[in-house]
Amino acid sequence: MPNNHHIFADGDLRRSEDTLRIDRLDGEPKYLAIENLDSLYLHGQVTFNTRALGLLNEHGVPVHIFGWNDYYRGSYLPKRSHVSGTTVVEQVRTYDDKNRRLGIATDMIAASIHNMRANLRYYNTRGHEFTAVLDELSALKDRAQTESSVESLRGVEALARKAYYRCFDVILRDPFELTRREYNPPSNEANALLSFLNAMTYTTCVSAIRKTALDPTVGFMHEPGERRFTLSLDVADIFKPILADRVMFRLVNRQQLSFDDFESELDGCLLTEAGRATVLDEYEQTLDETVEHPRLSRHVSYKTLVQTDVYSLKKHVLTGEDYHPTERWW
């Protein structure tokens, strides 16, 4: 089964026959079998030419690029294996239909809040007291069902995340503390870790959407804009509690990370290369974990959960079949 591959070293990415060759500045060349790649992540200063991009394009492998200090910079998306003008037209029609767009956005926010509550319920039974916040999130989820605009829905989602993030300092082992959510740049170690994991969740959603005929720039919760995949932002909000937050709690509370894995600079706090490697190893293992799916009646990986979520959205856009955003049941 194809997997994600992360390149940290600086160097050149080239095509060698039907294989990718990485000429690293700090070591021997490394070869990657293209058929074993699902997505390629470039974290170092890597140059590449059109022949390398051509090979990636032929095999449908997206490249996610992280620039200086590992800020996510963008993605190179190859030609799609699934191209459908009908799907794009129906997606835009759905966006333009106020009621249909609001329905999808409501389902997304409800699922996101459900997944926040699922995380807190887990820790509420393990020596913490989150009953008041659980009730607050439950009320906000109910409120989301009554909102009449996407703008007011976004306000409900912001309130839910603010309440949810208040619990992080209780869940996280000292000396990690979120204090408050800050990014661009992240102000401390917990914010740096969460920002990096959120970026990884976003790119996972970008890759999943690329495998469908949906247009990643036309979202339903987030407004379409320049230079961003708003549909990926939509889907990522559903999966941040399931992927980013749970991985964060695990890494910190199992002491797989320490403050030595971070570095503070004038413009904020960031993970070191060793820290990023630890985080990515845990994140990729999580993507490969499986759970039994109640509707599919089989075990599926977390990566597949993201894909089935996107396929469900595509079906809804095309046929009106109920959309089933992922709500954690396990």
Protein described:
By secondary structure, this protein is of the alpha/beta class. It has two domains: 3-76, Ribosomal Protein L15, Chain: K, domain 2, CATH 3.100.10.20; 85-319, Four Helix Bundle (Hemerythrin (Met), subunit A), CATH 1.20.120.920. Helices cover 49% and strands 17% of the residues. The protein has eleven helices and twelve strands. The chain has helices spanning 50-58, 85-96, 98-124, 131-144, 150-165, 168-171, 189-210, 230-239, 241-253, 273-288, 302-319; strands at residues 3-7, 11-16, 19-24, 30-33, 37-42, 46-48, 63-66, 72-76, 262-265, 268-271, 290-293, 298-301. The strands form four sheets. Strands 1-5-7-8 form a four-stranded mixed sheet, covered by helices on one side. A hairpin with a 5-residue loop joins strand 7 (63-66) and strand 8 (72-76). Helix 3 (98-124) runs parallel beside helix 8 (230-239) and helix 7 (189-210) packs across helix 11. The longest helix has 27 residues, at 98-124. The chain starts with a strand and ends in an 11-residue tail after the last helix. The mean pLDDT is 93. It is an enzyme of class 3 (hydrolase). It holds the Pfam family Cas_Cas1. Its EC number is 3.1.-.-.
